[in-house]
Amino acid sequence: MTAHAIAVDVGGTDMKAALVAVGRDTARQLRHARRPTPRGSDGAATADLVVEAVAELVSELRSGADSVDAVGVVVPGVVDEARGVGVFSANLGWRDVPLRDRLAARIDLPLAFGHDVRAGGLAEARLGAARGMRDVVVLPIGTGIAAALVLDGRLYSGGGFAGEIGHIDVGHGEPCGCGSNGCVEAMASSAAVARRYRARTGRDVSGADVAAAVRTGDPDAQAVWQDAIDALARGLLVLITVAAPECVVLGGGFAQAGDLLVDPLRARLDGMLAAYHRRPHLKLAELGDTAGCLGAALLATEGLKTP
Amino acid sequence: MTAHAIAVDVGGTDMKAALVAVGRDTARQLRHARRPTPRGSDGAATADLVVEAVAELVSELRSGADSVDAVGVVVPGVVDEARGVGVFSANLGWRDVPLRDRLAARIDLPLAFGHDVRAGGLAEARLGAARGMRDVVVLPIGTGIAAALVLDGRLYSGGGFAGEIGHIDVGHGEPCGCGSNGCVEAMASSAAVARRYRARTGRDVSGADVAAAVRTGDPDAQAVWQDAIDALARGLLVLITVAAPECVVLGGGFAQAGDLLVDPLRARLDGMLAAYHRRPHLKLAELGDTAGCLGAALLATEGLKTP
Questions:
Q1: Alpha carbon B259 to its chain's center
Q2: Which residues of A make CB contacts under 8 Å with B?
Q3: DSSP 8-state code for residue A197
Q4: Which of B59, B117, B181, B243 is surrounded by the most beta carbons within 10 Å?
């Protein structure tokens, strides 16, 4: 029942790769490798270099391994899994690159191609904080905020567009980088928290610094944090109303705030949920930065079951 | 490739039943029957009578039919398909009735049990306005507003709670029957449109009457209609942001307003959709009040494929 997959998680800075043993409800990294993500003169050149580097990582992890059944590769940005296309990556600069076909031409194993955040969400749902549950929303909170939806046990991507709750208007009225007002992200991303604290105090800090200041009783930090919790709760309420998950998993840099994030968010949500809402568990992500690779391995071995 | 199913759509007033031939992308009603929904002294008694009446309808449609492969029954209210339970019906009065098991004990054919609106949505997605598309939201607008979600070609119910966009807060601030403020339903249901027109004019009318008055240039009707379109557009924007459908199908009594509904809604949405949104087709439902039965037949024959 155990399959072996090579998983590659292409990030903006690093590429993480692993040989993963995937069982029924388990996944274990047997070996791993990491290298900087290569950069070309433009997005197309970067895509060429990334394809080459992925093929080399796969070859490296494959040598010496007993048998490898499949390869899973996940990339950032906007990804259309159905067409196998990297639609857009602000960080890596590519647009509409048929990455799945390009990778398949270089790798002679069954290949799955996906999105880093959604794959990480699938891993949290199957193996991490929400294991055993079928309807799960995984919400990494970092520079931006977008959810991965695992519905009836399967990743749902909506052509790459599903789960964009960072841009739900929750009524606070502040402008967002996207051009709209009131977006969850404009109040609750780690970048927004840092920016809003700086605006109040003149001090240049990170989102994590603000969380630390909340614990020491800094009133500016507490005010900014409260606004972030409120915007997040309103965004989650919308997500719960539409997608009705059994569990919401909070991840990304912000989740390192732990109970400082989960406790007030749960209290705020409890006050808003009505009889027509499913009441989800609220949990912290468990897999950290291995989620992407584990998710890529799950995608790879899932592909084996549906020829 | 053609299967034969008996479908029963239990409504608040009538029970509609049909013998349906289900092909790969088709469903055709061969015979049908209808009778009033029986009522007992309380919800439990009503459930008993409904189970009996469904069994009789099935028996009636089965006699003389060459062969019947399966039965599909759909009911209104809150339905948990996974557990096979009618959780709640305001109209029929039952609470937590294990209808699937009760029906299965009376009917010696493979049985599927579901929710009337979601089953109708599945029919519109597979056979009606959105045929050929995989990610579809079907939104009947009547006394209430709740969406059926067909994602990756499969009905998603979220334990019976998914798609409750009638109770998304879109910021208009008016109170809703649910106890919150600003709900889509409080401005855009046919009941809300009738109530708000009455409040302005003192005239007692239906939602359909208001639509007719919009066409004749009645300024009160136009104002009320414009508010409804705006609330609907904001609710749809949320749905699109989270669920990213390829197609939104508008149904229910309100959809009879046709272009009066679709054209301004499309224009309003066009002004709000951003690069991170999937742009869905906006269509009117095609199957009318046969959608529930056709959907029940689809559920019944789908059950045959997954033993």
A1: 20
A2: 78, 135, 147, 151-152, 154, 156-165, 167-169, 171, 178-180, 234, 238-239, 241-246, 274, 276-278
A3: H
A4: B243
Question: Which of B79, B134, B242 is the best residue to mutate to test the A interface, defined by the most A CB atoms within 10 Å of its own CB?
Answer: B242
Mean pLDDT value of segment B207-236: 96
Length of chain B: 307
Partners of B246 on chain A (C-beta within 8 Å) are 159
What average pLDDT score do residues A295-303 get? 93
pLDDT on residue B306: 46
pLDDT tens digits for range B149-179: 999 999 999 999 999 999 999 999 999 988 8
For residue A164, list chain B residues with Cβ-Cβ distance below 8 A.
Answer: 241-242, 244, 276-277
A184 and A233, same domain (yes or no) = yes
How confident is the model at residue A305, as a pLDDT?
62
Which residues from chain B sit within 8 angstroms of residue A151, using beta carbons?
A: 151, 156, 158
**Residue A236 and residue A227: Cα distance in Å, rounded?**
14
Range of the domain at A237: 132-285
B103, B167: one domain: no
User: Chain B: nearest CA to A237, how far in angstroms?
Assistant: 9
| Residue in this structure with the two tokens 């590519």, named with its chain if needed | A94
Provide mean pLDDT across the span A240-266.
95
Question: What CATH number is attached to the domain comprising A77?
Answer: 3.30.420.40
Given an 8 Å threshold on Cβ–Cβ distance, is B163 in contact with A245?
A: no
Question: Are B117 and B154 within one domain?
Answer: no
- Say if B176 falls within a structural domain: yes
- Put simply, the answer to whether A159 touches B242 (Cβ < 8 Å) is no
Mean pLDDT of chain B: 94
